[in-house]
Amino acid sequence: MPRKKLDKSFKSGHNKEIEEDIVFDDIDEGGADTIKKLRDKLKKCVEEKQEYLDGWQRSKADFVNARKKEEELRGGLVAFAKEGLIQDLLTSVDNFDMAFANKEAWESVDKNWRMGIEHIHSQLLKTLEEHGLDQFDPFGEEFDHNRHDSVETVVTDKKEGDHKVVEVMQKGYVLGGKVIRPAKVKVGKFE
Q1: What residues are paired with 168 via a beta bridge?
Q2: How much is the pLDDT for 28?
Q3: Which one of 44, 70, 149, 154 is CB 3.0 to 4.6 Å from 182, fit for a cystine?
Q4: Against a cut of 0.90, is the pTM above it?
């Protein structure tokens, strides 16, 4: 059987179906069936290629999303652990504040010892600030139940003192924009 001359030219584009132009010289009856089978097989291959490519792209996107979610969870866990530790240290900060509040007793202590304790207190506050803790003293602010915890209502004779913080019993703290401990306050009530 003599060999037939086969001239093929393919056109393709990125992520597009391949178009095929096959030119044959002197095609016999059996050759037309072969060409049809080859075209069907090529079409099936192109469809499978696109299916595999789509699946791979979906898998890659899923992996990227899973990695982002895992990083967010890890960051949340670190923040949660940090918050717990900082809340435990706030008891020590409160104890320093109570010691400093009694001016008469504090002034009677040896000056060098007092300076050492004040230095330790300032180092502790600086370290907490470096980890994102901000202290707030809401004296004179409008009462906000999200930032303040009212322990008592104080009658005031001034209208502008109504619903305002008139005394701070314990300072409040914010960590990363979140109030981790509201300030304990006394709130004025105009009568």
Answers
A1: 185
A2: 57
A3: 149
A4: no
> Mean pLDDT across the stretch 61-67?
95
pLDDT, tens digit (0-9, with 9 covering 90-100), for 79-129: 888 898 999 999 999 999 888 988 898 889 999 999 999 999 999 999 999
User: pLDDT grade, residue 9 (50/70/90)?
Assistant: very low
> In this structure, are residues 86 and 128 in contact, taking their beta carbons and an 8 Å threshold?
yes
Q: Is residue 103 part of a domain?
A: no
For residue 85, is it within any domain? no
Q: Which residues contact 153 (CB under 8 A, 6 or more apart)?
A: 186, 187, 188, 189
Q: Beta-strand (E) ranges in the chain?
A: 6-11, 19-24, 133-136, 148-156, 165-170, 172-175, 178-181, 183-190
Which of 31, 46, 64 terminates a domain? The answer is: 64
The enclosing domain of 173 has a CATH number of: 2.30.22.10
Q: Which of 45, 64, 83 is the C-terminal boundary of a domain?
A: 64
